[in-house]
User: What shape does this take?
Amino acid sequence: MKSLFVASFLLAFIALGQLKGLGRRRGGQQASFSVEEIPGEPRVKHPTPVPDAAVEALRTDEGVASCLGDNPLAPEQSLGSWFVASVIHLDRAEEADVVVVPSFQGQESMCFHTPAGIGLFWIFRKNGERYDLVLRTWGGGLEILTAKTNCYRDVRTGTLGQAGRDLTNTTYHFDGIRYVPDRKTAQK
Assistant: This one.
């Protein structure tokens, strides 16, 4: 039953974005991501390996470090295998920024996903040869919006609460260094 609520929420979240003209794909980019798989829809439509510089940044993430403590990597396994990236242009088309989501392929997937359908998302901004973490957030879905603040596209997350009765959306704006929460709205 809970999965039905989560799936309904995600479909509503994506449909709401499409109705408002948000989350449009620009140049083949995926702008909406969900934690739960929607039948017939891949979680990441254009998957790409997580860049090595972003993998190194993920290694320092407190949640990833904790998960590594409980789920050590096999000698032949790369930390990058735990995640999938999708290229997004937050600012200019020549900058290949990435949204990173857990791959949910192994035991470690439970480190980044709750039974309530809430998961972790990371957004990295390309900065020369390195990737800077500009947003780490939990949500049931994440959407890269067309509106911009400080030349960077705004981001919105959506989370269901109260057994699927409440939907909370948080909009993040770029402050020049990272994304910060700007507006939170709740719907019953």
